[in-house]
Amino acid sequence: MANTNTSKALWQIHLCVVLWGFTAILGKLISLPALPLVWWRMLIVAAVLALLPRVWRGIFAMPARVRWAYAGIGVLVALHWLTFYGAIKLSNASVAATCIAFATPMTALVEPLLTKQRFQPRDFALGLFSLPGIWLIVGGVPAGMHVGIVAGVASAFFVALFGTLNKRMVEAGDPLTVTALELGAGTITLTLLAPLMPLLVPAFAGPLLVLPSAVDGAWLLLLALACTLFPFALCLVALRHLSAFTAQLSVNLEPIYAIVLAAILFGEQHDLSARFYAGVAIILGVVFAQGLLARRRSREPMLEHPEVLGVSEAKQFTD
């Protein structure tokens, strides 16, 4: 029975990863600019979660200080999604998905600064090893996509920040409650940013209160429900029967799935050179090596706060 449960959980986690890979694809399909795209996605997910009594019970049971802390993290989540979908609009889905893989070496550098943990020289070395990959990726895409790479790396940096902060508050709240708080705060943040966005980053700007077209609305619902809430719930079920290390290795395949899907659906491989894919290989090698080192440092890594699964395109597990 245990083997059956594990096998089923592996299929479940891979389904989640494929669905997360589709977030980049849907970002390409939706014609909205980055700001209204992310605003509608966050609003839909937060509204659905607000219908659950469990979420409200968790909010009322949470100390005000903790609620505000999660709201602050929600601001970072909003900026992560904004820059991620901005990267898709400014380059393509393959480039944006690859840039998100930078979050793993970035986390290794950011986490000691925020949590006051002992710095790991091996993590710093892995971060250096990722630099040739970045150089190859930049040189392997058309010059017009370079600004998209900048947005993608910024998105990865926000992942490293909010993932580390969520980890510090690992026992502070129910995952669904925390997800609702963070996405609700993110929605408010984007609402306040909207009037300033044409001045700050015109490429991301767009009206919020204009209803999307029927096609965009359908894609947004699919993005919010099938690629956010459903895999979030399914992944929590699968993790009952998988080690965090096994789940991490599976989740690290997300950029690969996204790149393959983008090649099949959009033919993006024609816009990218062999140098780009060599850089992807180096970055993914660093990501997997980091997971193996974490495994050696701790025989059974802990799962990072599960709500990260619901709010990030880079679903991370840490030791």
Protein model, in words:
The model is unreliable at 299-307 and 314-319 (pLDDT under 50). The protein is mostly helical and 319 residues long. The protein is globular, with a radius of gyration of 19 Å. The chain has 15 helices and no strands.
Task: List the SSEs and their pairings.
Layout lengths: L1 H28 L4 H17 L2 H9 L2 H27 L2 H8 L2 H13 L5 H19 L6 H23 L6 H19 L3 H4 L13 H25 L5 H8 L2 H13 L7 H24 L10 H4 L8
Helix pairs in contact: 1-5, 1-11, 1-13, 2-4, 2-9, 2-11, 3-9, 4-5, 4-8, 4-9, 5-8, 5-13, 6-7, 6-8, 7-14
Distance between the termini: 28 Å
Radius of gyration over all CA atoms, rounded: 19 Å
Main sheet, how many strands, which sense, barrel? none
Described by the principal axes of the CA atoms, the overall outline is globular
The number of helical segments is 15
Question: What structural class do the secondary elements suggest?
Answer: mainly alpha
Task: Bin the helical content.
Answer: over 70%
H-E order: HHHHHHHHHHHHHHH
Low-pLDDT ranges: 299-307, 314-319
Features:
15 helices; globular; mainly alpha; disordered C terminus
Brief write-up:
The chain contains 15 helices and no strands.
